[in-house]
Amino acid sequence: MKKIILCMCIFFIVILFSSCAGTKALPQLYVSISLENSMAQRIQAIQGTTSWEVRTVFSHTLTESDSVHPLQLWDDALKAATLQLKNGESEMVFQFSTPPIAIAAWRWDAKYIGISDVDAATFELLNVEACGRAIIIVDDGNDYIYEVSATWSQGFSFFSFLILSQQIDGSETEAE
């Protein structure tokens, strides 16, 4: 009888630890910008190429997905992942559903949207504050496609979104 109770205890402990072994859901990225004299805007970024692995005592799950380059991905159907800047400086903050170990971010001028040779598109690497996961962005009158790469112990994922600008003189740009 003691052996049966001991085996049942071990079984329940193994089940408990295996269910807590790792995050099963793919991580998500939410991007917010705060605007002067205006409410903050928040969107969920579009998830791109991802590799995510979860190991437990009883299972191993590997999720891999590939995506086209953000400059070739963007179309009218993806406007839900668009933020609108106002004149001046704004703070853009990255909020992940699961905190990553490392992140990197870069952007392309929106004039490159739809370009067939994405290697010809010039990008700008952005300085992301490690603690706050924030970037200060200045409205320079240009629209930009952003891509964020994040890494966790379970894998990595890329995310993209669009920020529309407002002209320096105060007139709004129109999304094409």
Layout: helices, strands, pairs:
Elements: H1 2-19, E1 29-34, E2 41-44, E3 46-55, E4 60-65, H2 70-73, E5 82-84, E6 89-96, E7 102-109, E8 123-126, E9 134-138, E10 144-152, E11 155-164
Parallel strand pairs: 5-11
Antiparallel strand pairs: 1-2, 1-6, 3-4, 3-11, 6-9, 7-8, 7-10, 10-11
Please give the radius of gyration in angstroms.
Answer: 21 Å
The count of domains is: 1
Shape summary: globular
Extract low-pLDDT stretches.
11-22, 168-176
Structural class category: mainly beta
**Termini gap:** 74 Å
Number of helices: 2
Query: What is the percentage of strand-forming residues?
Result: 35-45%
Mean pLDDT: 78
The total strand number stands at 11
Main beta sheet, described? 7 strands, mixed
Describe the structure.
The protein has 176 residues and is mainly β. The chain has one domain. Helices cover 12% and strands 41% of the residues. The chain has helices at residues 2-19, 70-73, and strands at residues 29-34, 41-44, 46-55, 60-65, 82-84, 89-96, 102-109, 123-126, 134-138, 144-152, 155-164. The strands form 2 sheets. Strands 3, 4, 5, 7, 8, 10 and 11 form a 7-stranded mixed beta sheet that branches. A 4-stranded antiparallel beta sheet has the order 2-1-6-9, with no helix packed on it. Mean pLDDT is 78; it is low at 11-22 and 168-176.
